[in-house]
Design brief:
This protein is an alpha+beta fold. It is built from eleven helices and nine strands. 43% of the residues lie in helices and 15% in strands. Helix 2 packs antiparallel against helix 5. Bound molecules: zinc ion. The site of zinc ion (ZN) has 7 residues, from helix 9.
Length: 329
Amino acid sequence: MEQARKIEQDCDTFVRVFMASSLPQLRYMFCRAGLTAQEVNRRVASCQAMVLDSLWHWAQQDRNVNLLNIGFFRQSPPHVRAHIAMQRFKQPHPQPPMTILLDQIRLLCHRDQEVLEFVRDLNFQMSYSRNCLGHLTHIRSNSFSCAALCRVQGLCTIRGQRAVNIVTWGGSVPLPRHLKEEYINYASRYIWHPLVGLQVLLNGERSPSGQMVQVVPANAPFMLLCSTYTFNQHHDGRVVEVYPCSYCRAMFPSTRSPKGYVHYTLYKSSETGESDSYNRFSKGNCAECAAFSAMFHVTKQTCRIVGADPRVTVQRLGVGQLSVPLTLC
Ligand SMILES: [Zn+2]
């Protein structure tokens, strides 16, 4: 029940910061991109609807959440309340609210630093709340904020055209801890590239013959550069670059290993509790998953399953239609 109360509180904080800070920033970025006033209004309204509808959807996936405990809901007119309540049943699951917002802003940012600062400021503002006297007090980090961001860069040749520099970003799953698993299961099947999603679902399992079942690139991937950052809540949200965890090193191997294709800008292979600490919830929570998935989708990376029958494996994992065809060999 305590989890549900925190979600209700986090919803109010999220809506307050999103409306007061993120939307004006987004509006500024759309204007800066040269869109007409009409188009800016349309896009801001569309982003607002998508982000808030997703927030109401995910908040209500916790059956103990009572909308009447959320100030924004209580103060809304009846037709808005009805709309909010209906979001619980929306199918399929939308992406988490912060993921939707991140997808919008990363295309509009001019520099990498701008993406990091946007999320840093948002996290920082959302970790504060007003007490009964109207003073800002520090609370725990908001369940709907992104704890980590990952940047993946590749110099790629797409369909034989000239080499282009591609950068993708991804955030750690920005949902309350007990709802992360539900989203990760869903994203692994329907959103993430199979090279990410299938690996998360397989979770290092072995075939009956004892062989490790692996999903590997079918063609040599481009060399990718990967950097991951977290935000230190105790130092004004200071951006800190972090090591990849052991799960990510196994899923996206470093160029230091024979079949690796990732150059981690910060790398430490030894097992330390510290490097894995932000990943203690579940495999798939890491920002790397979303960032690599986006890169593999853009570059149309092919992959195959080794160590087990691919068709049987895909069926057993309950994966219906894969987002890219799997090379069966
Ligand atoms: Zn990781």
